Amino acid sequence: MDKRNKRKKGIVAAAFPHTIPVLTGYVFMGMAFGILLASKGYGALWAFAMAVTIYAGSAQFVAVGLMAAGFDPLGAFLVTLMVNARHVFYGVSMLERFKSYGKAKLYMIFALTDETFALHCSAKPPKGMSEERFYLAISVLDHLYWIVGCTVGGLIGGAMSINTLGIDFVMTALFVVIFLDQWKKKQNRTPALIGLGASIVCRLVFGPNWFILACMAALVILFSLFKKPLDREVRE
Amino acid sequence: MTTLEAIIMVAVFAAATFITRALAFALFPAGKPTPKFVVYLGRVLPFAITAMLVVYCLKNTVILENPHGAPELLAILLVAALFLAFKNSLLAIAVGTVAYMLMVQVLFA
């Protein structure tokens, strides 16, 4: 038992430093969500329940509006599918890695948020450590940060009113940092630029609500057109 | 909404979110070899998606009216400068977000 506990601690200690940017982001964002939800009459317990079961930043923010609007499960279902459509791509990217995973696989699929996905792409386990456990630790830590942030926000929002205008920029800042980090590796740059160009063009052409779906289609088409040179570049 | 209706709504949000995350795994089960093209997509997509997420976060930025996206642009430049100068993502994210909040709440309000 002692040995097992020690090993567990080692895995968490190795995973924790990678999750620090998400820790800040999630606590901030989660608090903003909890405060917003409380302002619509749903207190900390609701924020907690939503953080545990939904666990999706942008979808939860959209959900606040839908909860305030009234009972419409079908509408809620379709809107959530659309807001989270990009997550289908994360699954595609994690197919190979999760293939060999055991019991934890289902939870890790559930917990594949934007930020956790980004960490799964950038963080590497130390030599000799089980890859599955290392990434599981990252997933669980991120989920805990989110639950704490949302719940604390619900408690604060129930007690006082705060001007959180602009706090959602924490998500933008987080992705800018991840983008710059990925940019360091030369072979990532062409796909990154294709993604940047396609999403800007799609946003201008299709507007704020439809561009993610349009951009996903555009990316599949563009990447299939440039498969030969890109496949070689990424391999090298 | 009654409490039961609210619980149903939360369950619907949770189910729809899980479906988007699990879809790829359902389409390409672990027992069978994944098509090569899908494996290739899985390798190049992460970098394109990060860029898409930056644009996604900025999707509602107003460019044609005052303040013409200035708070967003300035805050992103600040985040990038801090991150490149100090290699510290925590510092860059925290300072950038606080600066942005001050800009939209006070400076450009």
The pair of chains with the biggest contact is: A-B, 93 and 68 residues
Radius of gyration of chain A (Å)? 19 Å
Question: How many DSSP helices of chain B?
Answer: 4
C-alpha termini separation of chain B:
35 Å
Topology, element by element:
The complex is a heterodimer of chains A (236) and B (109).
Chain A: H1 2-39, H2 44-53, H3 57-69, H4 73-83, H5 87-98, H6 105-110, H7 114-122, H8 131-159, H9 169-183, H10 189-225, H11 227-235
Chain B: H1 3-27, H2 36-57, H3 70-86, H4 89-107
Which terms would index this structure?
heterodimer, A: 236 residues, mainly alpha, globular, B: 109 residues
Describe the structure.
The complex is a heterodimer of chains A (236) and B (109). Chain A is mainly α and 236 residues long. Chain A has two domains: 2-171, no CATH class; 185-236. Chain A has helices at residues 2-39, 44-53, 57-69, 73-83, 87-98, 105-110, 114-122, 131-159, 169-183, 189-225, 227-235. The mean pLDDT of chain A is 89. With 109 residues, chain B is mainly alpha-helical. Chain B has a domain at 60-109. Chain B contains four helices and no strands. In chain B, α3 runs antiparallel to α4 (89-107).
